[in-house]
TrEMBL record:
This is Phosphoserine aminotransferase. GO terms for biological process: L-serine biosynthetic process. Belongs to the class-V pyridoxal-phosphate-dependent aminotransferase family. SerC subfamily. Binds 1 pyridoxal phosphate per subunit. The modification N6-(pyridoxal phosphate)lysine is found at K197. The gene is serC. Pathway: Amino-acid biosynthesis; L-serine biosynthesis; L-serine from 3-phospho-D-glycerate: step 2/3. Transmembrane segments: none annotated.
């Protein structure tokens, strides 16, 4: 553990220690170039290798076929909320949004600025405790696309199984669970995710887009907001966030070196189980926000049975070196974000702390 804290931040969040150490080692003189990655020209062969390797690694880890382009853009998930409708929402069509939390709402509001949108399903009436069942999701064959948020960072819910939308493009915001488990990429026309939870530092946004979507996309929008421009230029149309892409590539190497996606999935399941067990075995001392069958393996949201105790829990946890356990300001309570790089030991320590806090305060 050393000087490293138990980091349960919701994003930006923990990065693998070995990746940080490698970056530190390579910082001053990157692979014999006499400069850091940050100082390399983005047109240099040395940088290009970093860039292409990161793309190739993501393709391999997520089993992304040649039918798709992998892009690195900027502006975070929030810019994708606008880029998606700007590119794909035509005046004669509607876009269907499945509402599972605050980020779905943001995506929906942004799309409203560009065209006709409607809600294909929503769990707002329950304060977003669950993911709607597949037969609750209503959309039209003529829709421009169906949009969903695969993991709800604030409410702590996650899709288990995705709707089949046939010929209607399915678009997913996977900001908070990308690369946390295997995903059938070919169900989706477009996937986007800010890197700052599972993939690397903030500043890089990954877009995985099916090539036929590039043909459909609107060309009368600002150049930087056209997916096609980034695809045509291998995400080097302008200066990309080079250091972030380098770190993202190193995080992907770390995934590979620690057993690949299957091992990672298993670790994520084990980590979440430690904390959900502490909740479920507490006889109501702790209780989850999410319905059990919609629970997220990434953001574990829970409450302590009364408000005073909850304050005490958060204050004592902080003293014990647990960082980032306060729930999002819009919902309160507690949230442990156990993204890919959060070690098993951190989750073990948190579950033990939860048990001993309960014993001391029951
Ligand atoms: N979507 C989800 C699911 C998120 O969790 C977040 C940020 N926490 C965003 C979108 C917004 O991303 P960004 O801050 O990169 O714009």
């Amino acid at each position: 553990q050393g000087t490293r804290t138990y980091n349960f931040n919701a994003g930006p969040s923990a990065l693998p220690l070995t990746v940080l150490e490698k970056a530190q080692q390579e910082l001053i003189d990157f692979r014999g170039s006499g400069m850091s990655v940050m100082e390399l020209s983005h047109r240099s062969a040395t940088y290009e290798e970093v860039h292409n390797q990161a793309i190739a690694n993501l393709r391999k880890l997520m089993s992304i076929s040649d039918e798709y382009e992998v892009l690195f853009v900027q502006g975070g998930g929030s810019t994708q909320f606008a880029m998606v409708p700007m590119n794909f929402l035509t005046p004669e069509k509607k876009a269907a949004y499945i509402m599972t939390g605050a980020w779905s709402e943001k995506a929906f509001s942004e799309a409203k600025l560009f065209g006709q949108v409607y809600q294909a399903a929503s769990s707002k009436d329950s304060n977003y405790r669950y993911i709607p069942s597949l037969d609750e999701v209503k959309f039209e064959a003529s829709d421009a696309y169906v949009h969903l948020t695969s993991n709800n960072t604030i409410f702590g819910t996650q899709w288990r199984e995705f709707p089949n939308t046939g010929d209607v493009p399915l678009i997913a915001d996977m900001s908070s669970d990308i690369l946390s488990k295997p995903i059938a990429v070919n169900k989706f026309a477009l996937i986007y995710a800010g890197a700052q939870k599972n993939l690397g530092p903030s500043g890089v946004t990954v877009v995985i887009i099916r090539k036929d979507m590039l043909e459909l996309a609107n060309k009368n929008i600002p150049t930087m907001l056209q997916y096609g421009i980034h695809a045509k230029n291998n995400s080097l149309y302008n200066t990309p966030p080079t250091f972030g892409i380098y770190l993202l590539g190193e995080v992907l190497n770390w995934v590979e070196e620690t057993g690949g996606l299957d091992a990672l999935t298993k670790r994520n399941e084990e980590k979440a189980k430690l904390i959900y067990d502490a909740i479920d075995q507490s006889n109501g001392f702790y209780y989850g926000h999410a319905d059990v069958n919609s629970r997220s393996l990434m953001n574990l949201t829970f409450r302590v049975k009364d408000e005073e105790l909850e304050k005490k829990f958060l204050a004592e946890a902080k003293k014990e070196g647990f960082v980032g356990l306060n729930g999002h300001r819009s919902v309160g309570g507690c949230r442990a974000s156990a993204y890919n790089a959060v070690p098993y030991e951190a989750c073990k320590a948190l579950s033990q702390f939860m048990v001993s806090f309960q014993q001391a305060n029951s």
